[in-house]
Prior knowledge:
This protein has 390 residues and is of the alpha+beta class.
Amino acid sequence: MAQEFDITIIGGGHSGLFLARALADQGWRLALVEPRPIGTAPATADGRNLALMRSSREAADRFGIWPALAPVVRPVEAVHLREKPGGATLVTTMRELGGRPFAYGVEHPALHAALATSLAELGEPPRIFANGLRGLERRPEARLLELADGSRIATRLVIGADGRGSRLRELAGIRLDAWRYDQAAISFIVAHTRPHRQTVHEWMRPRGPLALLPLPGRRSGVTWVEPEARARALVAEGEEALLRRLGEESEGVLGDLRLASRIGIQPLGAQHARRYVAPRLALIGDAAHGVHPIHAQGFNMAVADIAELAEALARAARRGEDPGGADLLLGYERARWWANQQRIWMTDGLNRIFSSEAAWLQPVRSGAIRAVAALPPLRRRLARNRMQLV
């Protein structure tokens, strides 16, 4: 016999937990399928980090998640962008954008743990199945899910939050456009002797961007993009050499550096599902789209997906409507597919322009940054676009 639920989320990563928390107060019978332990990773186990943009913080506020996140994030009050080798600079501060932080730096494990805590504190948390998804069947009023242990779930709506290699997307037969970059991101956390002053430092370089993201304490997250072979060679040189090279590339802005996490390497690519929905099925986050990290958009795009879908489901709950209704799902797809496609084009274009060794592009890049720096209305407009406030 299949266990019955209104909504089942496949995937208990950041997107799945955020969505589960957003839906938890709506009255649905809710299940979450995730084979790995939720919320147990130690805070220093992973070098990955991300910036929660202002729009994501506002969504976290609406869904009651922010109290759990606030202790593990650091506000970003300024962004200092430098173009290499031309030397053009662009500085944006929160005073230009209403006086509020326009992003928040957080480590991946800390974000995951905070989301898990927020979910666990609910009076009626979702039913969690520590299992993987094996099969998917379509029924007139439900989707029938077969889990790896042979158990079954009948659900009126199934939502894929299971990452770029989404098993649910594969089983649903949703096609994907994907491409690789000849780049990899080196990610880790550093402690440093100089304060970061709540400032993101970013260098746009022909080999790939380098960003330093402020984290709680005198610590910063590093996302350092290089051609993949060079990235692996840099890591292979060892901790001391890597930190020395980072100090040189970052012009010593943080003083002496000490490694405060493991070092990760992630080959880079982008992808976009051709559809976000099928009968009684929807995709969110990395299951639907993946972008280059150049503009810190990935998880923020996922939060925008979650906000759109959660608000549509809240309206359905108030009206007593079917959570898997075709009109609801098609409305979600219309709201998010094109918006995400534009973000994918933007990040892809920025990477191809700024991560190029072509000599003729260098003065173009420098000139563009200097022009933006000289025009405050344009600078504010671009900053708002980055924060997804448009």
